[in-house]
């Protein structure tokens, strides 16, 4: 009996000396601060919004804004991990917790709003169609029974799949694949965000955007995981601050104006 009591006292003593379990972060912001890095999904093949330069460094309008968000959240713009995304997996990366925020030129749509939470928009956009100057497409009637190139999961994919089934679609995962297909003649034209095709045509003078505005005007906004209200509220406040401080204007001057020049007005692109 003596030994049993002695063992019980020792066991109780050891239990009393055990360290309490480390408390796990209760929110995304707490987890980000604990990790000391914020994971932001961006494009790496969609200049001038998100791309890799010759040194493999992330550049573009979305990247500039994302770095400022990281600075405001963690005190240093270098404390961001850029995660390369494609059009079709942006939403999935949020749902599967591969990223904390998406800054990959994501157009706000009702369908997407059901599965992610959009923050305040920062860019205006519509669809555009680019084609060779030698066979310029200027209206949709010219595309009937022809092959149009689009990216999977984009607003162009949705628009033509639902509203113009008389047009054949050839779909690709990556922007580079889609534009290479246009150069190879695998389609008569390519449809994408008008901001992208206008920029691409300037770099490829044998091509022209014959349809500059198609469908309704939409907005581009960052997004967070559905239901993450704390991070969403913080992001909305930060975006409002960045707009008031002129950060959006500075990012436009650095990344977009050199591409569009005076052909497109800043007020027609930025959401203030």
How many strands in all? 13
Question: What class, by secondary structure content?
Answer: alpha/beta
Q: How many structural domains does the protein architecture include?
A: 2
CATH topology group of the largest domain:
D-Maltodextrin-Binding Protein, domain 2
**What is the count of DSSP helices, taking H or I runs of 4+ residues?**
10
Adjacency order of strands in the biggest sheet: 10-9-11-8-12
The CATH architecture of the largest domain comes to 3-Layer(aba) Sandwich
Topology as H/E string? HHEEEEHEHEHEEEHEHEHEEHH
| Relevant CATH superfamily of the largest domain | Periplasmic binding protein-like II
Overview of the structural elements:
The protein is an alpha/beta fold. The protein has two domains: 28-122 and 221-265, D-Maltodextrin-Binding Protein, domain 2; 126-218, 3-Layer(aba) Sandwich (D-Maltodextrin-Binding Protein, domain 2). Helices cover 39% and strands 24% of the residues. It has a five-stranded mixed beta sheet, sandwiched between helices.
SSE order and pairing:
Blueprint: H1 2-17, H2 28-35, E1 38-42, E2 45-46, E3 50-52, E4 58-59, H3 61-74, E5 80-84, H4 90-95, E6 101-102, H5 110-113, E7 116-118, E8 123-132, E9 147-151, H6 155-163, E10 168-172, H7 175-183, E11 189-193, H8 194-203, E12 207-220, E13 223-225, H9 229-244, H10 247-260
Helix pairs in contact: 3-9, 3-10
């Amino acid at each position: 009996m003596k030994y049993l009591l002695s063992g019980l006292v020792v066991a109780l003593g050891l239990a009393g000396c055990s360290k309490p379990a480390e408390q796990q972060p209760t929110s995304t912001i707490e987890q980000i601060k604990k990790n000391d890095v914020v994971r932001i999904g961006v494009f790496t093949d969609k200049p001038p919004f998100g791309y890799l330069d010759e040194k493999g460094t992330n550049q573009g309008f979305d990247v500039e804004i994302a770095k400022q968000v990281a600075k405001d959240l963690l005190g240093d713009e270098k404390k961001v991990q850029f995660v390369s995304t494609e059009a079709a997996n942006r939403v999935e990366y949020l749902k599967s917790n591969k990223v904390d925020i998406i800054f990959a030129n994501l157009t706000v749509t009702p369908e997407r709003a059901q599965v992610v939470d959009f923050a305040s928009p920062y860019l205006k956009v519509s669809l555009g169609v680019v084609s060779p100057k030698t066979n310029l497409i200027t209206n949709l009637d010219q595309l009937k029974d022809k092959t149009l190139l689009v990216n999977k999961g984009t607003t162009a994919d949705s628009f033509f799949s639902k509203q113009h089934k008389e047009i054949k679609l050839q779909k690709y995962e990556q922007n580079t694949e889609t534009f290479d297909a246009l150069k190879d003649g695998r389609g008569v034209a390519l449809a994408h965000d008008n901001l992208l095709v206008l920029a691409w045509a300037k770099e490829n003078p044998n091509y022209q955007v014959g349809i500059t505005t198609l469908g309704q005007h939409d907005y581009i906004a960052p997004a967070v995981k559905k239901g993450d209200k704390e991070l969403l509220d913080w992001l909305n406040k930060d975006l409002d601050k960045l707009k008031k401080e002129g950060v959006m204007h500075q990012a436009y001057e650095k990344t977009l104006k050199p591409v569009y020049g005076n052909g497109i007005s800043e007020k027609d692109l930025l959401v203030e």
